Amino acid sequence: MAGTGIFADIYDEHTGVYKYYSDGAWNVSSSGKSVPIINPTTRKTQYKVQACTQEEVNKVMESAKAAQKLWAKTPLWKRAEMLHKAAAILKENKAPIAECLVKEIAKPAKDAVTEVVRSGDLVSYTGEEGVRILGEGKFLTSDSFPGNERSKYCLVSKVPLGVVLAIPPFNYPVNLAVSKIAPALIAGNSLVLKPPTQGAVAALHMVHCFHLAGFPKGLISCITGKGSEIGDFLTMHPGVNCISFTGGDTGIAISKKAGMVPLQMELGGKDACIVLEDADLDLVAANIIKGGFSYSGQRCTAVKVVLVMDSVADTLVEKVNVKVSKLTVGPPEENCDITPVVSESSANFIEGLVMDAKQKGATFCQEYKRDGNLIWPLLLDNVKPEMRIAWEEPFGPVLPVIRINTVEQGIHHCNASNFGLQGCVFTRDINKAILIGDAMETGTVQINSAPARGPDHFPFQGLKDSGIGSQGVTNSILMMTKIKSTVINLPTPSYTMG
């Protein structure tokens, strides 16, 4: 169970509050305060975590800086070896970590276990990929550029940035944490993790797996607390050399305040699904259900708007409605398809979008139903551009359908969005798929499949308000390093072999 057995050190039995991790140990904050974590299903306090102070942030940064200097000298193979060990411990302890995900973010039990296993695989893959990427450099000669003789040799290598600040979101608090932690560590950086409040306890358990793997003290820290007290203090801290953030609008504010620090940000999407007349509608319907309603639509890569040619819209909507009627609704412990959204404020926001669509004439394919944070799946047909749901990201099990008369109309709607994370095109004509995909202003286009972040080694990036930089194992490692050039100046030009 969570907080027991090998995880007993992370929990303070006297206060009932989970500890934060710094300098290789589990600690209680000097603030004497805690932050409650509300179970989305029961809407009652499930866990409590430390409300850390700014002074504790300063100490964490000092430890991280000192530990990084030593870690950078650790052989690359050794760094990879330790990541493999952490991955194995993480996968061995998938049950208690998954239990936290179920209770903190109402993730269905089977999906919670999958997230932890996937995270372990990601850590191992990063260790292997890091050895390949970081083990190579470049050798340049000066005579390849006009006007120069062969009198300079340039050795180009990749070196760590320093201290990486990682801020993952609530919906994948383990997987999107390790997608930042593992590249940072293999590249020779130290890592400070600020987990989301909902998902913090799962993240603390995950960090303990790295602790048990034997990473040097101070190299990894996990600091919890209120964003209003330590959020800006963390992101604007002079000790931070890189910020990797996944989340919402907060990322835009961070990017404006961060200064001269490399940023890796994924800030959400309004992923459009364009359906042509020749599409396999059974395939489309299955992917709309998977893409629009898995984890109750609380995914940045969820299908957020369906743009379907009017001639096939009736048939597609009918096929989707049949599948919606078969979705199970209820608590995550029972592995229901639709579980409560993360918070009451999220449920209220979703309801606001639904009521706006109702007032403006959308067709409700199902009755709108809500019980606390639990919202039943809802397909909205005949949605018009003047409705909020056409543009705003609900992050819930509500999906709008907009009927279009031309492909250009669909592309225009996709590109008019302030988001540009992913999109998808369904057609049997590969030429049309490529042409439409090229015209869509998104970081990734899926052809005949719903949007998805994985596999985790694929590049993952957004345009416009969807983010800065690119993720994926290779891209993250490269982003968390900088180029170092060493130029050897020869006394005379050198030409080898004759």
Describe this structure in words.
- This protein has 14 helices and 28 strands.
- The chain is of the alpha/beta class and 498 residues long.
- Strands 16-19-20-15-14-22-23 form a seven-stranded mixed sheet, with helices on both faces. Strands 11-10-9-12-13-26 form a six-stranded mixed sheet, with helices on both faces. A three-stranded antiparallel sheet has the order 7-8-28.
- A hairpin with a 6-residue loop joins strand 5 and strand 6.
- The protein starts with 10 loop residues before the first strand and ends in a 9-residue tail after the last strand.
Amount of helix: 25-40%
Overall spatial form: globular
* Radius of gyration based on Cα positions: 24 Å
Span between N and C termini? 71 Å
**Rounded average pLDDT:** 97
> Spatial order of the strands in the main sheet?
16-19-20-15-14-22-23
Largest sheet: 7 strands, mixed
Oligomerization: single chain
- The share of residues in extended strands comes to 15-25%
GO cellular component, one term: cytoplasm
Family: Belongs to the aldehyde dehydrogenase family.
Pfam families: Aldedh (PF00171)
GO molecular function: glyceraldehyde-3-phosphate dehydrogenase (NADP+) (non-phosphorylating) activity; lactaldehyde dehydrogenase (NAD+) activity
